[in-house]
Write a structure and sequence with these properties.
Shape: globular
Strand order of the largest sheet: 6-12-11-10-9
CATH architecture of the largest domain: 3-Layer(aba) Sandwich
Oligomer: single chain
Strand content: 15-25%
Bound molecules: pyridoxal-5'-phosphate
CATH superfamily of the largest domain: Type I PLP-dependent aspartate aminotransferase-like (Major domain)
Number of strands: 16
Number of helices: 17
Length: about 450
């Protein structure tokens, strides 16, 4: 049934601006049809994560002792949002003007400098010593950084290469920029030199994309992959880099961009593994082709527990400063015409926090405490699943674990009947280690063990 509004009155009826809609069902299907453009009409409803979280909340609010393994934020054992106290302290001490002022369009210079160290660790120095230019631009979260690459580094209508299991919002970011998706398998199917990287399929996909496109881009969420918790080994990272270098050298007219989505890296054992591997590859004598760009989409949402403050950066690495300058310019213009400047307060607070050795150490201690919470839950879940005969995907780091299955909705419904709430996604079930208490591990394992296969 359509809602109408005439001269301040609201009501319901089938009459609408000179047109009668006979069926409420049709009206519902066509809602907004005359207002939304063709692209918007293809955007669909509730994100699975939020709808399954809502089901958990409903169960909890009706007094049920339910397990919440749905949301992607780190919760303490009592279900409250985990916050890094050093960051909270820094925000509390922030001068009023830092709340109110705009940030410079590309970000506060000291923050941009800090962000390079937070993204690259000690490898930053080695890269700079080797003459690699490093750009950083402030973005609204890691999402903003991903958006900048989608908007600028491949042509409209091109495909971006992802692994088949990936963070679902990638699909929306890409289709919003008029891009399609090609995938390669998360794990190799047979024997492979690299247990967590399917090099053969990766190279096949790169070759086929190169037949159709003059720019290729890969988005790789590693380490601590969302939704599985997988992290590549150093050998896997180096194989991937070598493969991209070989491909870029073979086709110098084709732009090659690798975007490391590092959203969870500071909760991984090998937090700076990618930067270290980049240094290793080029220290070992590989050339850096002019048509190869390496980027890090950095999010401070999780590492500093400031999800809502929307802070991130896009880091770009290239041997030529002129290329970095040009990219920074393009990214700045894109940001200006999309979200204006990125939020200032987090940039100020993080700079302040990390410029004091005491506060920086307090942040690191808290970060370690939060990482331990995740590690304990992961170890316990893996042990419980093994005891129940449930085979989970390899899970090494970060916020999630993954149960691969053909009918995720049915499995999630089955778990919900045991008051265990997980998220069914394409190809499997995401288990939010970040949101469930340690005591939930056994219940998750038992619910999965009894689920229909
Ligand atoms: C895989 C992945 N990438 C990027 C992000 C971006 O996070 P944000 O925009 O909050 O910094 C997230 C957030 O959940 C994520 O899971």
């Amino acid at each position: 049934m359509l809602r109408w509004r005439i001269l301040g009155q609201t009501g319901r009826g089938h009459e609408c601006v000179g047109r009668t809609i006979s069926s409420a069902l049709i009206a519902e299907h066509m809602a907004g049809e005359t207002l939304l453009n063709a692209h918007a009409l293809r955007k669909h409803g509730n994100d699975a994560i939020f709808s399954w979280f809502a089901r958990y909340q409903k169960a909890r609010d009706s007094g049920i002792d339910a397990v919440n393994a749905t949301v992607g934020s780190l919760l303490e054992e009592d279900g409250s949002l985990a916050t890094n106290s050093a960051v909270v302290e820094s925000v509390r001490n922030c001068p009023p003007v830092e709340f109110s002022a705009y940030a410079p369009l590309r970000g506060l210079p000291r923050f941009l400098d800090l962000s390079k160290s937070l993204a690259l660790g000690d490898a930053r120095q080695s890269l700079e010593n080797a003459g690699i230019s490093i750009g950083s631009i402030a973005t609204p979260g890691g999402s903003g950084a991903l958006y900048l690459t989608a908007a600028n580094l491949v042509e409209r209508g091109h495909s971006v290469l992802l692994r088949d299991r990936h963070w679902a919002p990638y699909d929306g970011f890409l289709s919003g920029s008029d891009l399609s998706i090609e995938t390669w398998p998360l794990l190799p199917s047979g024997d492979s030199q690299y247990p967590y990287f399917d090099l053969t399929s990766f190279e096949e996909k790169i070759s086929s994309l190169k037949m159709k496109q003059d720019k290729i881009m890969i988005w790789l969420n590693d380490p601590a992959h969302n939704p599985t918790g997988l992290s590549l080994t150093a050998e896997g990272r180096i194989a991937l880099l070598d493969s991209m270098i070989t491909s870029a050298l073979a086709d110098p007219e084709i732009g090659h961009t690798l975007v490391i989505d590092a959203a969870y890296s500071l909760y991984a054992d090998d937090a700076y593994g990618w930067a270290d591997s980049i240094v290793e590859v080029f220290d070992n004598g590989s050339p850096w082709p002019e048509n190869l760009l390496l980027c890090f989409a950095v999010s401070f949402s999780k590492s500093h527990t400031i999800y809502g403050m929307r802070n991130g950066v896009l880091i770009s690495l290239h041997p030529e400063q002129e290329v970095i300058d040009r990219l920074q310019n393009v990214f700045g213009v894109t940001g200006r015409s999309t979200w204006s400047a990125a939020p200032r307060i987090g940039q100020y607070c993080l700079t302040d926090l990390h410029s004091s050795p005491e506060q920086g150490a307090a942040w690191a201690t808290e970060c370690e405490r939060l990482k331990k919470i995740l590690d304990n839950r992961r170890i316990t879940l893996l042990a419980n699943c093994e005891a129940e005969g449930v085979i989970l995907n390899p899970a090494h780091d970060g916020f999630f674990a993954w149960f691969e299955c053909d009918q995720p909705e049915i499995v999630a419904e089955h778990c919900a009947k045991q008051d265990v709430f997980v998220v069914p996604l394409e190809g499997g079930i995401r288990i939010g280690l970040c949101s469930m208490p340690l005591t939930g591990c056994e219940r998750v394992a038992k619910a999965l063990a009894s689920a229909p296969r």
